[in-house]
């Protein structure tokens, strides 16, 4: 019986040691995970200005393209309106001359 009690005490001590070791390993794993997360966050924060600069550059490029397209459309519309104005001016002069000629007769 005494041997059995000694074996039980030995097994219980071994179990406590294993539990303590597992808890230590658990804490180490948690600390490593926290450290990895912290490093990943720092890396992201370090890249953030670059990411923002890229986003701003792309946005500016899209804005420049939109401005160029709008300017082109504006120029085309302006040219069309000038052409219409010249045509109407010529027609108006013809009608005015015709009316003037009728009035004199």
Walkthrough of the structure:
By secondary structure, the protein is mostly helical. It is built from 1 helix and no strands.
Question: Which tags fit this structure?
Answer:
single chain, 105 residues, mainly alpha, 0% strand, coiled coil, H(+)-ATPase subunit H
Sequence-ordered SSE layout with sheet pairings:
Layout: H1 2-104
pLDDT averaged residue by residue: 93
Annotation, overall tally of beta strands: 0
Total helical segments = 1
Please tell me how large the radius of gyration is. Answer: 44 Å
Which term fits the overall shape? Answer: rod-shaped
Give the H and E element order: H
Major sheet, described briefly? none
Low-confidence stretches: none
Helix content estimate: over 70%
In short:
This protein has one helix at residues 2-104. By secondary structure, the chain is mainly α.
